[in-house]
UniProtKB/TrEMBL annotation:
<keyword id="KW-0576">Peroxisome</keyword>
<dbReference type="Pfam" id="PF13561">
    <property type="entry name" value="adh_short_C2"/>
</dbReference>
<keyword id="KW-0521">NADP</keyword>
<keyword id="KW-0275">Fatty acid biosynthesis</keyword>
<keyword id="KW-0560">Oxidoreductase</keyword>
<keyword id="KW-0276">Fatty acid metabolism</keyword>
<comment type="pathway">
    <text>Lipid metabolism.</text>
</comment>
<keyword id="KW-0597">Phosphoprotein</keyword>
<dbReference type="InterPro" id="IPR052388">
    <property type="entry name" value="Peroxisomal_t2-enoyl-CoA_red"/>
</dbReference>
<comment type="function">
    <text>Participates in chain elongation of fatty acids. Catalyzes the reduction of trans-2-enoyl-CoAs of varying chain lengths from 6:1 to 16:1, having maximum activity with 10:1 CoA. Has no 2,4-dienoyl-CoA reductase activity.</text>
</comment>
<keyword id="KW-0444">Lipid biosynthesis</keyword>
<protein>
    <recommendedName>
        <fullName>Peroxisomal trans-2-enoyl-CoA reductase</fullName>
        <ecNumber>1.3.1.38</ecNumber>
    </recommendedName>
</protein>
<comment type="subunit">
    <text>Interacts with PEX5, probably required to target it into peroxisomes.</text>
</comment>
<keyword id="KW-0443">Lipid metabolism</keyword>
<dbReference type="InterPro" id="IPR036291">
    <property type="entry name" value="NAD(P)-bd_dom_sf"/>
</dbReference>
<dbReference type="InterPro" id="IPR002347">
    <property type="entry name" value="SDR_fam"/>
</dbReference>
Amino acid sequence: MADGYRSVFAPGLFDGRLMIVTGGGSGIGRCIAHELASLGAHVAITGRRIERLETVRTEIEDVGGAVSCHAFDIRDEAAVVAAIAEIIAAHGPIFGLVNNAGGQYPSPAEELSVKGWDAVIRNNLTGGFIVSREAYKQSMAEHGGSIVNIIADIWGGMPTMAHSGAARAGMLNLTETTACEWARSGVRVNAVAPGWVASSGFDTYDDAMKAELRRLRDEIPLGRYGNESEVSAAVTFLLTPGAAFISGSCIRVDGAVPNHRHTWTNVPTDRSIAFDGFPLATLPECLR
Ligand SMILES: CCC/C=C/C(=O)SCCNC(=O)CCNC(=O)[C@H](O)C(C)(C)COP(=O)([O-])OP(=O)([O-])OC[C@H]1O[C@@H](n2cnc3c(N)ncnc32)[C@H](O)[C@@H]1OP(=O)([O-])[O-]
Ligand SMILES: NC(=O)C1=CN([C@@H]2O[C@H](COP(=O)(O)OP(=O)(O)OC[C@H]3O[C@@H](n4cnc5c(N)ncnc54)[C@H](OP(=O)(O)O)[C@@H]3O)[C@@H](O)[C@H]2O)C=CC1
């Protein structure tokens, strides 16, 4: 038998608990599924492509974990309603939900079509909302639970990711709002915001984007990309009783990137020209 996932959390912590991980067929979601299963959970992994889910199912079962696969698009409301009902019928009440599925494509904002914008907003905001609502209504409202939403580093502009940045910022507020609304049902809702994490997600980028990623790596204060297990550990912590009084919060897993942003190295050296092209002298004193 292959080695299982080595979590820093106590073995058996989630024995018999049902956890859903959307986007569990690759990258960060796959890693989270492995960690939760290694701690005793039954993990329901979801995604659009069943073959990727089946591969992860085999990996987890090979090390003795409990897992099931459920293929659906998180943006398809009817499919989500049916899939959540099917998961509960087969595996019992939902204890944890990790809204990890998502993604986008890079594009300058002025070149985004409304169709492309909508596709990405639905992938990174609407989908997570639908899955959360159904997990709450169909199960967690009765007995409590914990939801973790994977967002992104939204503490600043995200050039070429306007659609995704807007969606993830919306997801952070949805996290905060549902944390309030569902608290009295014993449901906690938190977010984890990965920075640049070397995962299968990087494979979806073209060569220009990969070159940009290599440049960005040098600007990460901790000097490297994050890895999938570092995101998974933060998610797992939020699902544990150790986080019982944490709700509506966000853990950034980003090597301190947002703290570093204001140390710009590319500020204009010609101090006679303001950033917007107006001569500096025309600006009020307080803006100089
Ligand atoms: C954010 C910070 C860091 C994050 C890192 C990560 O997330 S790593 C993880 C990274 N992992 C992932 O990102 C994985 C998940 N990502 C995805 O599945 C896609 O990015 C998706 C959300 C667009 C799929 O939405 P879908 O199933 O609805 O796809 P669809 O094919 O039907 O397209 C609908 C419309 O969108 C437009 N459009 C789409 N693609 C492009 C493009 N390349 N170029 C230009 N435009 C594009 C286009 O308008 C298209 O309509 P058209 O003109 O064809 O009639
Ligand atoms: N890697 C990074 O640096 C960062 C990643 N993130 C976010 O973390 C999450 C995981 O990313 P990562 O593992 O790197 O990338 P991946 O592309 O490997 O993971 C995305 C997963 O989501 C699934 N998915 C995407 N869209 C849908 C959909 N509409 N319905 C159902 N499933 C869907 C995909 O499976 P399938 O295609 O089969 O549906 C895939 O398994 C994503 O939300 C990503 O945007 C955020 C910040 C940084």
